[in-house]
Amino acid sequence: MRKDDGNDRASEASAESSFSSYADPLVHEALQQAAALEGSAEAEQLHKLRVALRQLRTLLWAYGPTLDKDFASQQRALLKFCANAAGSTRDWDIVIDLVGESGGSALVDAFRRNRTEASETSRETLSNANLKKVLREAIAEVNRELNTQASRTPLTQFARHRVTAAEKQLKKRIRVAMKSGTSDYACFHEVRKAGKKVRYLIEFFDPLLAKKQRKGHKHLKRLQKRLGSLNDVVASRNLLKTHRATLPDSDAIDQALRSLKKEQKRRMKAASALL
Which ranges carry the CHAD domain (predicted)? Predict the structure, then answer.
């Protein structure tokens, strides 16, 4: 058997028949992490759950042109809702990490109480969402729709086309961010989202892609790391502003906000240097 026989078989498959091979491991990972949350909402479990749900959203985006538009949009919106529910707890973990003891013990204690409340809300929201049923029904419906279509698209052709489409979207958003300078975080956030999409698609379809489509993966990971670091600071500032009235020691909050604003500018410049 030749070394690349596995890739040859994959390239002969259709995109429609291959959907489950990409979706099923992500569903398994999401449900595994969601089940672990029944005992406690640990940061690592929440992060892994969010990543799995984001990857599923990206996979649905990739298959979007072959699916009913309203159905695909509805499923992606539901996955986004669940990912956001899992994210609220981790946001408080980041605030605790960034502000730390510099805010004083009373403020840190308040952060931890809010983190506990967010954890309980996350678990309740995800439980009410019935994630297991939702995900399995969604994947089954996508498979039904794909497998009843008359035409078939070669998987390699499909993978390269969708990665190219995502790369074009990313390049467009990078151009907008570069024109905006370092004053408009919203543009950087759009780059971050588009970059995640490209990164996940490359990781899904790596064996099927042309070399030029894979070569930028390392740079993209570095950019995503800096944009993620920037997002942590922005999210922390927003969280402090939103909950300011319920937090003790307004002077400590003012100091934390000033410090985070300064750090945001530094991280904006660092991210901008990689665009």
Answer: 12-275
Q: What are the beta bridge partners of residue 114? A: none
Fold exhibited by the domain 154-275? CHAD domain (1.40.20)
**End-to-end Cα distance, the chain:** 43
With left for phi above 0 and alpha for psi between -120 and 50, is residue 41 left, alpha or beta? beta
* pLDDT (tens digit per residue) in 215-253: 888 889 999 999 999 999 999 999 999 999 888 878 889
Distance CA 124, CA 129 (A): 8
Based on DSSP, count helices (H) and strands (E) in the chain, helices before strands. 11, 0
pLDDT, tens digit, 9 for 90 and up, residues 145-163: 998 888 899 999 999 999 9
pTM above 0.85, yes or no: yes
Q: How many C-beta atoms lie closer than 10 Å to residue 114's C-beta?
A: 20
Burial of 135 (0-12, 13-18, 19+ CB in 10 A): buried
